[in-house]
Structure formats: structure tokens, C-alpha cells
Amino acid sequence: MSSIEPERYSVRYKVAEAARLAGVSASTLRLWESQGLVVPSRSETGHRQYSAEDVARLKRISWFRAERGLNPAAIREALETEEGGANGLDNGEQSASSDIGRRFRSLRHAAGKTLEQVAADMGMTSSTLSTLERTSQGVSFKTLHDLADYYGTTVSRLSGEEREDFPALVRSGEWRAWPATTPGVTVQLLAEGRTMMDCHRFVLAPGAASEGAYRHEGEEFIHVLAGRLELVLDSDQFFDLLPGDSLYFESRRYHSWRNRHDGETVLLWINTPPTF
């Protein structure tokens, strides 16, 4: 969201208002939402709220449908092409940045659940979940893990880490990264494909943290390349890890972490099997 256009994004329209502005019916907006073409935010009482950006998107959807006769899949592709160009990204980059949000939305639809139902189950607001599904951003590392677990999958799978066309050799500085879902946390892939290990390079900005403890199956290995990491196991075992330090632990133990360095902390982090 641009910091120089706060007024544009502060406006919120109810479903009837947004439908009128887009020149369609309210039921059509709900249909487009079920098809993943637009995901409005929700008020605290659960009512749909459309931003000015959402309304502009609705108008484009309406135009693509009426003037070009496109089906939902073709409309979605056309919108992504436009948005990728507007952001200075090629189609591959734009798709990678938003895939995980769309995949979460698809899993929710497949489960037959509403935003409100999943948000209530997860103890989060529906607007936060909506933002994640639309932008692949805005949640903590713990929430990202817990949502994947809720749907019976892993973050690695949702991030496309198990793709088939992975390179065996990954050169220094050419690491593909997860979508930037969590502020201050960059996860780079040191190996891809259907491996027995998740091999990651974590880059944590000052103050970056998991924002809660999580657990899963498997075992983990952490090696600090630079900076300083505080890691807590089962809420009562504290580790202050410095450059060159390593830690090995069972993933089923609740673990949380934060960067205690005033600069970036860089980690080699391995999970086996790939259960995160």
C-alpha cells in the first residue's frame, strides 16, 4: 500500500455501494468473491468492506466480462498481468509474490469455510486473514505456520518449494525466497524439490520475531552465520545464540525466536523431514 495515498485507501464501501459503483448486482460481487477474483476486507461485525482499490478492480472485472467475454480464470490472469506491469514486475515475479495468499484462499474455499469461520478458529481478525489471502502479507511467522497446519499442509509446500523443476545447484546470491508474508523475515531456499530436508537461509531484520511459539513434527538444526538469536523451547529453556553457535532440537517442542541483534541476523536453518 502506498504511503502517499492514505485517503484513497481509507474509504470503505458496503457491498451494495460497491456493486452500484461497479454496475453489477450484490450477488454478482459475492460470486466473484467465491471465484477468487476479489477478496474484500471485513468489519469487526463481519460485513464486507470494499476499498477504492477494490472498486477499481471490480470495474475492470466487469469490463473484462462484458466487453471481452472472459471467463473467471482468464479475468484473473488478465488482472495479474495488469497488476504485475503496474508494479514493475514480470508475470513470474508477481505470481510468486501472491501465490501463497491465493493458495490459502483456495484451501479455505475447498474446505467450505468463510473468512469469519477460519479467523474465529485461528483467533485472528477476518480483515487480517483477508489481507493475507489478497496480498500474501501481514501475518506473523507463527500464524503462517498455524494456518498451514490448520489446512493440513506446510508453508514449504504452499511456497512452491516442492516444485519438480528445481535446480540441483544453487549459486550464492541466487536463492529463491518465500513470499514476504512476515515483516522483517526473509526465508531463502538453499535447496528445492521433494527433499528429506527443508534447507533455508533466514535473514532477520532488527526486532524480527516469530511472535509466538509453534511446533510440528521432525527435528531442526540452526547455525548462526551473523548477528544474535534468542530461541526459547517450551517457554522455559532459553538460548542466546551468537555467530558460529549451533542448536539441534526436536520440532515437537514449542519454539519461538527473535533477533536480538541491532542489525541483521542470518541463520542456516534445516528441518527434517520438511514439516514446516
What does it look like?
This protein has 276 residues and is α+β, with helices and mostly antiparallel strands. The chain has 3 domains: 65 residues, Orthogonal Bundle (Multidrug-efflux Transporter Regulator, Chain: A, Domain 2); 70 residues, lambda repressor-like DNA-binding domains (434 Repressor (Amino-terminal Domain), Orthogonal Bundle), CATH 1.10.260.40; 93 residues, Jelly Rolls. The protein is built from 10 helices and 11 strands. A 6-stranded antiparallel beta sheet has the order 3-4-5-11-6-9, with no helix packed on it. A 3-stranded antiparallel beta sheet has the order 8-7-10, with no helix packed on it. It is elongated.
Assembly annotation: single chain
Mean pLDDT: 82
Ends: how far apart?
29 Å
Helix-strand pattern, N to C? HHHEEHHHHHHHEEEEEEEEE
**Helix vs. strand class:** alpha+beta
Low-pLDDT runs of 5+ residues are 1-10, 85-98
Q: Superfamily at the CATH H level of the largest domain?
A: Jelly Rolls
The largest pleated sheet is described as: 6 strands, antiparallel
Number of DSSP E strands: 11
CATH architecture of the largest domain: Sandwich
Bin the helical content.
25-40%
Q: What Rg do the Cα atoms give?
A: 20 Å
Instruction: Give the strand order of the largest sheet, numbering strands 1, 2, ... along the chain.
Output: 3-4-5-11-6-9
Q: Approximately how much beta-strand content do the residues carry?
A: 15-25%
Query: What gross morphology would you assign?
Result: elongated
Kindly give the count of domains. Answer: 3
Per the CATH scheme, the topology name of the largest domain is Jelly Rolls
The CATH class of the largest domain is Mainly Beta
SS field, number of helical segments:
10
Domain HTH merR-type: 12-81
GO molecular function, one term: DNA binding
Pfam family, one: HTH_31
Region (Disordered): 81-100
